[in-house]
Amino acid sequence: MKKVLTVVVPSYNVEKYLEQTLDSFINDQVMGDVEILIVDDGSKDKTAEIAHRYEEKYPDTFRLISKENGGHGSTINTGITRASGKYFKVVDGDDWVEKDGFCSLVCQLKNCSEEYILTNYYEVNDVSGEKTEKKFPQLSPGKTLTFNEAAAKVQMPMHALVIRTDVLRENGIRLDEHCFYVDVEYILFPVPFVQTVRYLDCFVYMYRLAVATQSVSMQGYQKHIQNHTDVVLHLLDYLNAYEKREDADETKCRYMARRIAQMAETQMNVYLSYPLSDKAVRKKFKEFDETLREKNRLVYHWTGEYSGMLRILRKTGFRAYTAIILLSRLRNKKDRG
Prior knowledge:
The chain has helices at residues 18-23, 47-57, 72-82, 99-109, 147-151, 165-170, 183-188, 218-223, 225-243, 250-272, 279-295, 297-306, 308-315, 321-336, and strands spanning 5-11, 34-41, 62-67, 87-90, 96-97, 116-125, 131-134, 144-146, 161-164, 196-209. The chain is an alpha/beta fold. Helix 10 (250-272) packs across helix 12 and helix 11 (279-295) packs across helix 12.
């Protein structure tokens, strides 16, 4: 029997969290309608052992897929290939879902046909347990919108997204492997093929924050900066290729460009976080900015729109680099204190 929803759980050394993740899917009302693909990405701990226990106890719902380490993108690619559900969602192995919201989502998906489904989610502080609501009040619950109508009102983050599986599979959507920061690829690669969006006013995803080792911490960004660079440039190439198509939609191009610009701005903030004495970083920063200008003028323009400091750097040919970094750090210190 075809499932309503496939949930892919990318899992790498998540033995500390995985039971909480998998327990959150256990609900007799919907377990027959979902499949949970736990993709063990070459873990060295007890991740696979824990997943196997759930597979044995609930064989119609949980399935363990073990593979060699290939990174977050590779687990999603594997999930796309193996999914049997009408819809597709990613829930990382150190996150979880809100049980009632997940149940509501699955029940409502039975009557949905839109390519993108948006739901609310929580950001959960891993230290304090504090939950922050992430909602989309600009959208009317249960109403079908064109992609362009939805894109004019909101951005569509990964944790809110449920995607119709055939959109991913039939259009050959594949993410970079052995690479961090592919979430934005997952968000943007399907955009050319999405016509309709529906918002469901229920809280589903529980996104764990404040883990110091997360790749989205500044320490993580510095460690994996080349991965971040590669993804930005790959996205720019994808956007440029789409812009050249005869059926390219201007609104979709601008939506993708703005999201890539935000990622590029993050890249620039990472450059600014390095010690002033690191001249190699200054050189890479300038080269990255020049590459942005060469590849896509709109993305280049919007990065300057987001950052006054970047506009100054560009006007001075990066000669104001030292002063800008000192100003940035002074401002951050004041904000913290």
